[in-house]
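Chapter review: from sequence to fold.
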Amino acid sequence: MVTGSIPTWAAGTLYRTGPGGYELENTPKGTFKTTHWFDGFAHTHKFDIIFDPNGPVRVLYSSRHQAEDYVGAIRKTGRLPSLSFGQRQDPCIGIYGKFMSVFKREERKPAPSSANVCVTVQADLPGFVPNTGQNSSGHRTGGKALFLATDASRLQEISPETLEPIGLANQQLLHPSLKGPLSSAHAQRDPKTGDLFNFNRDMGFYATYRIFRTSSTTGKTDILATISTSDLKPAYIHSFFLSPSFVILCVPSSHLGYMGISVPWNGNIVDAIEPFDRSKLCKWFIVDRRRGRGVVATLETPAGFFFHSINSFEDHNKSTGDKDVFCDLVEYPSTDIIRAFEMDVLLNRKNKEESYLNDEQRVGNCLPRIVRRRFRVPADQTGKRSEMDSERVLEIKAPHAGELPTINPNYATKKYRYVYSLANRGYSTLHDIIVKTDLVTRQTLCWQGPKSHTPGEAIFVPRPKQSGDRDDDDEDDGVLLSVILDGLNKTSYLVCIDAKTMQELGRAVCDWAIGHGFHGLHIT
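The token string follows.
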């Protein structure tokens, strides 16, 4: 049921993905319980927003679980069939079992639903969708291919219509050098060319990061830079930055122990992350993506951590040729926020939430802040890599800034003004408001529901431009689409919000609860 109004130009499909279940009963080891929010069983949701010329906009909802074989394996054994983000190791697994897990080989042809992938939704990834009209799995998709991604080199392809898993793909299909197991869930796209950018992280005697680009026209993949030094460790990295001239990789202070071997040894990433150490600085690498010069600048910033980059843009000094590169992110002073998303803390099992909140220092470390860093890249006349300094030019703290940040997609890689994110004032388990942050005035507007209403990531849908509109007209002219969970009534609704005023325009109400997910994608 739709109440209020949803603009006709917002018609299209909104995809949302995330965890849709956390427990399995009657396994050989009793009830299996997921120990970290990020490891819930994959569940993708589809909202078809339909314009009817003879009536109001309608919204049709459907969903599907994508990890049926993965869940089936847990039912049979009571254990996860593969590595996870934060699932605590079965205490019955001894030293021999851990040793064997380090050298465990992957199935040669795993079933499409044998992977638990549910962080981001991406469409028509170049290289995975050849120009023949067939995607990498051999299924025709009517011109659209849809993929789910996580912080690994593997992607899961799903049907855009039924959401059924139809294939698994790996970055090594793009280039033989992309053989590492880890990557970023947030691949970046050039807003003009559609080219795909990401990194592949391999572990060995030295950590190796390969920054790559896949052409949207040819499907060819080029390695823009291979980064590997004796003092560079593998780290958990969720996102990176793309500006008009550069790919910017920040390796935060979330280092994986024993050069990454701690991941298979512990069975998950969270337990493999070394204790936070303020002497372990963040390392930045600025990679030229236009002229093939590889890494053109490196620098270090104080120890810290981030999940999400927001945007990156440049200012060009015409007299010197130098470029100021600005990188905006949601930053934390430590890695404590990773543990804050464990299920025992979120659900207050065994008073875990209370004990977590009693540590004021830890609570402070879990408060997000929008941070802007400025890097000056000198004009390169020698072709050699240069070291440079950074300047922290902006910081906006919670609750005036939050997590899962989004912007008007038309302003990606451009100078911009508004960020939309989810903040927490203590009225819900995770987040309770959608906040619009003005990066120029530092003022905020917010949308909020009643107590216990938890908003999901707010997806910005721009109003289509009319003839005569300037490119810089009304950055906030559009709507936000967010799926809200009503925790008390155990129902959900899709809300449509005016991005300029942050006032609700309309909503589509469900009589059931929709799992609180991570990220989504709107396709017109």
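Two observations follow directly from the output. DSSP finds seven helices and 34 strands in the chain. The helical segments are 68-77, 95-102, 262-266, 336-340, 343-346, 352-357, 360-365.
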